[in-house]
Amino acid sequence: MENINNKPLIGENEDSSKKHVEEKIGSMVLAETTKSEPETNIIENQEQSGKQKAERFINRHRREFSIFARDPSLKYITSPDAETFMFDASNIQVIFPEQWFKEDDYSEDEKLFSSYHELSHFTDMRENPEVFLDNFAQMGKDADLLAKKWLKKHPDRASQDAVARVYCKELHCLYNCLDDIYVNNIVYDRSPRFAEGSDDYEDVISLYKKLGFEEADLTNIPLHLQMSYSLLRDEMLGDACGKSIVDDKVNNALSKVVLGQTIPEAVDSRLKPVPGTSLVDPKERYDFIRHFIQPQFIELLEESLEKAVDEESDQSQQNQPTEQQDQDEEAEFDPFKDFRKNSRFRDFLDNNDENIEKSLHEWKEQKDFENMSDEERRKYEEEKRIKDFDDRHNITESQRKEDTRIQNKIKDARNEMRKFWRNLVGKSVEYRKNRIKYQRKGHFNVSSYIDRYAETEERKLQGNLRTAEVYDRNEMKRIIVDQPETIDISLLVDCSASMWGDKEEMAKQTTALLMYSIKDFNHELDRGRYKTNSKLRANTEVINFGSDYDVVKPFERKAKRNGENNNANIIKTISSINNEYGGTDDCKPLDYIQNSISIEEMKKIKEKKLKKIVFEITDGRPYDPHQTSDKVKQLAREGVIVVGFQIGDVGQNERDIFEQIWNNDEVLSNGGKGIYIGQDISSLPTKLMKELSDSLNDIII
Questions:
Q1: Strand ranges of the sheet holding 93-97, from the earlier edge strand across to the other edge
Q2: Angle 397-409/559-576 helices, nearest 10 degrees?
Q3: What is the distance between the alpha carbons of residues 47 and 56, in angstroms, rounded to a whole number?
């Protein structure tokens, strides 16, 4: 189907015409623009499909729809599955049922009125989205309270959520019927051709008969639905087909005088727009419904529910249901399901409430955004960006808060590291003097003159000595310095039971500082690539260890494609550091790192194309000091820089073991070392970053 919104609409091209149309929108405009087209008796090919006929209908009335809704952004689509016209709030579009167009069951005006009905719902909701959201929330609260009350009488009959869903669905039915009365009166006001007493009012009557409201006797349906449907039916068909026949209990509820009026009288005076005026604030409507109509409806609903549950119980006893059937019935508790399944009534507002709520939230945000100051908008956009990011990556609120807290702690140290990265990346390009021989200008070179003596003498005889190439000239030549292609940094964090308090806090800050600093480093590299042509990237992985180990943050190998995932992993990693990993067995993660180095990577380490660094933070002695020492030495022999940090108040024996593992000749000769932090735990982040700086300061990028 052609996207009708791509075609020019009234008001899209000229501001003046838009203003003119908006001033005239109302009864007269739509009376003039819609009267002629349906009366042209357009002959449609009987072989056309319902979809094609629906599309032709949309194209014929596109201009009127835009004027009526006062919004050219609305979309109009057809659906083979829709049973009636619907407003799809989630996609801001009106759905036209193709089956209505297959045959001649519905007239042009019946279909046009149905379209205006849905557009009126859109206008009503778009104008005051916050009120509709509040009403949805209030219905949910009312349903929860009613469900609790009902379950006191019927304990274990169903879950509270299941019972609340029933109450909520029935309350929606009441409000939907009253909303339909309201929006139909909007149609009468904006398109008087359909108003009561007009020539085309017969089409409205005919339409509601086809929607199942022709029969006046409603006594065979649940009491509460008799009330809601009779209000809608009497509004649309009461004078033409007679008032609805309802149960005496329903009639008593409707006849009850509140504030000097019965419910039908109140609907006429309080819940309809006044012709020729702006829309009625839905808050006023809903407040009145909640306080003066809903209580009567709930009384009837309670009685309907009791009757339906009793009938279900009698039927269940006769059929002797299985335990599985009981569980299924409890899960989908809905005593009125069979009625709705076989109901003759087809409600216009047959929409998905979740989709409607989603759109209402979007419209509310848009209205709030339009009323913000520039500073408020920037803050709002940033918060929304963060929320969308967290939703995409399943980041919890507590994880986000912890990340924000830690980032504030490391802010100064991170800024210092940024300066280091800028200075380091600045070394990547050198300009060297280069002396070029055999030039026509520059410094006279005796050797060049001798080399080209014959040629020079010939030019001298010709009087063209200026072209003699016997000079030297110095120029600055731009040289890209050799560099590694990859830097891989593994951080092993001791998360044993003793790593609590300040030790856990400093481990978090150190880990965050390392990860965010390497992210900053890559950013500096990206900024300078147009100068350096460098392929270099730095990657980090974080491994928590205790009795076992967990790679909580893997290396980010493809930054452009996985950059967002890497950012999410950083946030999650910070919160993952705790003291719940049991003992202190660093052999397993060291062995994991050693086994993960491929033959190709070992070759690159030797060729200085890959720089691999392993940092370990621990507060105690490992399970097997000899095995840990062997692993550290093996990594050092393979060219990996291994650096250990011991933090906390440790005994002399533990400190001696640490020295033997990390400060032996084999480790030291390959650039590694062990650093005792002790009780000066707060210095851990800066000391680890100093070791990183020293490890990278010798590379030329």
A1: 75-79, 93-97, 86-88
A2: 90
A3: 14
Question: What angle, rounded to 10 degrees, do the helices at 353-370 and 108-127 form?
Answer: 50
Contact 100, 55 (CB under 8 A): no
Alpha carbons 541 and 570: distance in angstroms, whole number:
10
Phi, psi (degrees; rounded to nearest 5) at 33: -85, -20
The neighbour count for residue 282, using CB atoms within 10 Å, is 21
Angle at alpha carbon of residue 498, lines to 675 and 681, rounded to 5° = 40
- Burial letters 499-524, b for 16+ CB under 10 A, else e: beeebbbbbbbbbbbbbbbbbbbbeb
**Measured CA distances, 552 to 22, 157, 492, 502 (Å):** 59, 45, 10, 21
State the Cα–Cα distance between residues 478 and 275, nearest whole angstrom: 80
pLDDT band, residue 317 (cuts 50/70/90): low
Confidence of residue 527 (pLDDT cuts 50, 70, 90): confident
Q: What is the pLDDT of residues 115-132, one digit of tens each?
A: 999 888 888 888 888 999
Q: Which residues contact residue 582 at a Cβ distance below 8 angstroms, ignoring those fewer than 6 apart?
A: 496, 497, 546, 547, 548
**Helix pair angle (160-190, 294-319), 10° resolution:** 130
Q: Cα–Cα distances in Å, from 440 out to 433, 473, 474, 489, 672? A: 19, 9, 13, 54, 55
pTM: 0.56
Q: At what angle do helices 201-208 and 108-127 cross, to 10 degrees?
A: 80
Confirm if 112 and 35 have CB atoms less than 8 A apart: no
Angle formed at CA 259 by CA 254 and CA 263, multiple of 5 degrees? 20
3-state secondary structure at position 496 = coil
Task: Classify 9 as helix, strand or coil.
Answer: coil
Tokens of 320: 């002797």
Nearest in space to 139 (alpha carbons), one of 289, 330, 254? 289
The per-residue pLDDT for range 208-237, each reduced to its tens digit, is 998 889 999 999 999 999 999 999 999 999
Q: Confirm if 103 and 66 have CB atoms less than 8 A apart.
A: no
- Beta bridge partners, 490, equal 541, 614
